[in-house]
Amino acid sequence: MKPNKKCPISWKIIEPFVEKIQDEKKYGFRISQGIVKRHFYVKSLTELDDWLDRLSRVAIMTDIKNDFDFKSLLGTGSYSYVYLATDLENGQEYAIKCIPKYQLQSIEHFSALINEIEIMKSLDHPRIIKIHKIYESPHHVHLVLDYAQGGDLFQRIGTNGPITEKKAIILIKNLLNVIEYLNSKNIVHRDIKLQNIFMVSKNNDTEIKLGDFGLSCINTEKLTQICGSPGFTAPEILKRDIYGSKVDVFSVGIVLFMLLTGKTPWSAKNKKELVLQNRDCKVPFAEALSSQNSREMIKLVKKLMMPNPNSRPSASQILRSRYLREAEDSIRPRRRSQSVCGSILYEKNNDQGNKDNNEESKFVENNQKGATDRHAKFESVLRLLYESKRWETESKNCWGL
């Protein structure tokens, strides 16, 4: 049987209800948008649950606590909180992003949230955080998202330090495949960084999901808006040039650099210095990478981080390029003398074999003290990146440019 009338329900609110007339219960739901409301009745509670399950995938639900048990706070952002929650029906774990409505104080904030939701709903890729449901209450908007058990890549590198070239190349290929998919959908992420790359599990360093599409947009020929995260932003954005999808490739280059070294390419002491160094993009690759990594891997990092977007390849070009292929072919184990956050482990050489234990212990102790100092410096630089809020503004003052 064909319906008498069709009605789009995207962005409309769904509210279930139960009416008791004498001894009989009637089950149903209302679809509302503004002051317009339509009521629909079903035959049973089971049928109502089925309708609500289907409608929740495309419309907005109202009472999230009827469906999810909130367990713990996973993290906070500039405008939101993220909680770990369990689906009361099947026990599945999700990350729920909670946006207080008082944070949405302008049309621009509302538009940005709607843009984020619409873009995420349009995406379907195994390495992208998926949005499952949307809830709205009088005071909050909740987004039900995939939960990545391994935390984010920033936490992983901060805890474990650099990863091997073999793991790095696998992770970067996974990330480039995601960007290639976004390019096919004509979408630019504009905020690729360690904190927005989520680890699927606690024990795997290469399986990832890209998340946080709050700054993403449809690619046009006239993108000029300054946005992103200082330290990961492509130079053309900071120079206020017209830019496109290759800005995401530059950010991947920064990610690869940090995967291999455990540190940022910049030596900034404050946000203003960070932005200026990021814009000028003068990176001492030879000093930072040559003693640790293969020449082919260094070439790949340089290619991804080309300051000139006209010389920088697209994600598709890199995936099919000799740079990636040669980097894969040249993979070799990391030197045993490297460890977390650039600290130095003492490794006795043959010509030191006759030294007594006291001298050896003193040498190790001194190096451990130096390693602690270097670790503190590493933490301070990464913390600057972590605490730098994303800026999405046309104001030069916010960037110090």
UniProtKB/TrEMBL annotation:
Pfam families: Pkinase. One of its GO terms (molecular function) is protein serine/threonine kinase activity. Residues 348-363 have a biased composition (Basic and acidic residues). The keyword Transferase applies. The keyword Cell inner membrane does not apply. It comes from the Eukaryota. Residues 68-324 form the Protein kinase domain. Keywords: ATP-binding, Kinase, Nucleotide-binding, Serine/threonine-protein kinase, Transferase. ATP binds at K97. Residues 342-370 are annotated as: Disordered. Monomer. Belongs to the protein kinase superfamily. This is Protein kinase domain-containing protein. It comes from Blepharisma stoltei.
